[in-house]
Amino acid sequence: xxxxxxxxxxxxxxxxxxxxxxxxxxxxxxxxxxxxxxxxxxxxxxxxxxxxxxxxxxxxxxxxxxxxxxxxxxxxxxxxxxxxxxxxxxxxxxxxxxxxxxxxxxxxxxxxxxxxxxxxxxxxxxxxxxxxxxxxxxxxxxxxxxxxxxxxxxxxxxxxxxxxxxxxxxxxxxxxxxxxxxxxxxxxxxxxxxxxxxxxxxxxxxxxxxxxxxxxxxxxxxxxxxxxxxxxxxxxxxxxxxxxxxxxxxxxxxxxxxxxxxxxxxxxxxxxxxxxxxxxxxxxxxxxxxxxxxxxxxx
Length: 299
Known about the structure:
Blueprint: E1 3-5, E2 25-28, E3 34-44, E4 49-56, E5 61-66, E6 70-73, E7 78-81, H1 104-113, E8 139-140, E9 148-150, E10 159-162, E11 167-177, E12 182-190, E13 203-207, E14 211-214, E15 219-222, H2 243-253, H3 269-284, E16 294-296
Parallel strand pairs: 2-7, 10-15
Antiparallel strand pairs: 1-3, 2-3, 3-4, 4-5, 6-7, 8-11, 9-16, 10-11, 11-12, 12-13, 14-15
């Protein structure tokens, strides 16, 4: 894991869509507890910001927070850690302030705490054990609508925003995994005019694990997406999506545990309303990761 502290990178310049959050207060998303402050930021070998070095004053230790698990509030100069509580922060492995100590074992322990899935197995040559040219089992929601519908809010047509509130496009379609009937990707039609990009009808795919739905504003907020990076993201030209393309998206957004609910008909009548209040509000709340799935139509 080739990383270096931002404090030692004199040649680094922040892009217009990113902020220097060093010194900002860090709070948990669960419980809204103040747990420390951002001491430093870590860059990878290509010069991209990857982690926050957070001083957990109440535990008297430093920990790393993946950048795509952190949400910055510029007005309050606060960083919130997605899905984490004050108690769970105790399980984050200590960072010894030396990037050279960050080996594969540390990475696995870090991924486990933040709910990230393990990377796929690799073959003897160190390559992922998958056919990069083989297609994923995906289908457009539009062709499934005779038999299925999206449970809860359907984000198609909603504006897509970066973590800092910039609009980058709108949701054109959902790509479903038929075997489990869960949405895996959002097909996002890029707003090329707003981003001052060449008009070529760009579409990009965004993993559903990286989005939060704000049902009140009918917007989709994408963790780990910067407006300035959209131009370099691989363009989506339609199905099929290969394992190789999925791997690129994993590297861009980072892998997380989806935790999406299983498909199944919800209750009806009064029980259904209670189910929506207690279940969908959890899965689709404005400060939680989206959990989009579909259910079979009846009648």
